[in-house]
Specification:
Number of strands: 20
Structural class: alpha+beta
Number of helices: 10
Shape: globular
Number of domains: 1
Length: 347
């Protein structure tokens, strides 16, 4: 797209986004995604094809392996796995894994309170924790307590009108068909290696991958689960405090029925044009208006000082945790170059 905005002043601290640019915004319901393009960083193993969850050695103990013959793997922040009849876990932090390396995460959080069984190495699908849980999960990194996120998951379920239990699968698995529609209605662009996400016009997160292949492999976990859950709840089909059937949202009147919004979509927008030239002009005007809207949203995003703490090193790569009053997450840098970032607003 010719209509782009530079990102070099978007985030504070050591993360330089010089050379990365924004593309034309896309919208599905309450979720807006702005593609990011930029220079690829070679030598990073993509997570779906390169990383394998080899075993769960007990509650809160998850083992990953970088199966690639060469290249370092950057574990996506808040990556989790789901498997039927097994204990589902998510990670509270990112990490480096060298080629062939196996790493046991002792501080993983169980996200399924009472389901028995451990996950074996077989067919798996992975998610990234919903936005509403990410700040808390990051705070709990390094804490070896498998039940540490159950209360927060239970509160999230109750907020969405579901049984108050520490079972994240009530949202991720049982609503998966609705949530995964976000990844088909928002189009991954050629060469895209990142995105800005907004929910209901508010900044929700910035995700940046080393290269387009890496980003393509975390696309569905990000758009459907990390940010799709909040957008699903805030979807305009539910109206202002109403569910799809016209009732009020569960937390407003104490009912326990599940919140069932309509599918993620937006009203069809017609353009008045008598010929192709006028249609192109109308489309250009619409793109410009959307980009201006994004600029307004960014300008309205609260800012504040952030604290950056280095966690790990791998050769010239640095993994750091970023915390602040309105922003948190983890980043990977090489000198002043951004390699990976998962930064999110406090929900």
């Amino acid at each position: 797209m010719s209509d782009v905005t530079t990102l070099d002043t978007l985030v504070p601290g050591p993360l330089s986004l010089a050379g990365h640019r924004l593309g034309t915004p896309q919208r599905a319901g309450a979720l807006t995604m702005v593609p990011i393009s930029g220079p690829a960083y070679p030598g990073i193993v993509p997570p779906r094809t390169g990383l394998k969850l080899t075993r769960v050695a007990g509650y809160g103990r998850v083992e990953l392996r970088n199966g690639a013959e060469q290249g370092v793997a950057i574990v996506p922040l808040h990556m989790g796995h789901v498997q039927d009849a097994a204990q589902n876990h998510a990670l509270c932090r990112s990490a480096f894994l060298a080629a062939g390396q196996t790493l046991m995460f002792e501080d993983a959080c169980c996200v399924q309170q009472s389901q028995g069984g451990y996950l074996a190495e077989r067919d798996q699908w992975f998610f990234i924790l919903p936005l509403e849980l990410r700040a808390r999960a990051l705070e709990l990194r390094g804490v070896p307590d498998y039940a540490k996120l159950w209360d927060d998951i239970a509160a999230l379920n109750r907020r969405y009108g579901l049984p108050r239990r520490g079972h994240l699968e009530q949202i991720l698995s049982r609503r998966r068909a609705v949530l995964t529609q976000f990844q088909s209605r928002l189009e991954l662009q050629p060469g895209q290696l990142g995105a800005l996400f907004f929910v209901d016009g508010r900044f929700a997160g910035l995700e940046l991958a080393p290269d387009p292949r890496y980003f393509a492999e975390i696309w569905t976990p990000l758009v459907s689960f990390a940010y799709g859950v909040a957008a699903w709840y805030a979807h305009p089909g539910a109206g202002s405090g109403a569910d799809a059937s016209g009732g009020r949202r569960p937390e407003q009147d104490g009912r326990s029925e599940p919140f069932e919004p309509s599918e993620p979509s937006e009203p069809f927008e017609a353009f008045e044009a008598r010929d192709l030239r006028e249609l192109r002009a109308a489309l250009d005007h619409d793109r410009a208006a959307r980009i201006a809207e994004i600029a307004d949203w960014l300008a309205a995003t609260p800012t504040g000082p952030v604290r950056t703490v280095e966690e790990e090193r791998y050769l010239s790569l640095r993994l750091s945790t970023v915390t602040g009053p309105h922003l948190a997450g983890q980043i990977v840098t090489d000198g002043d170059r951004a390699v990976y970032a998962s930064l999110f607003a406090h929900a």
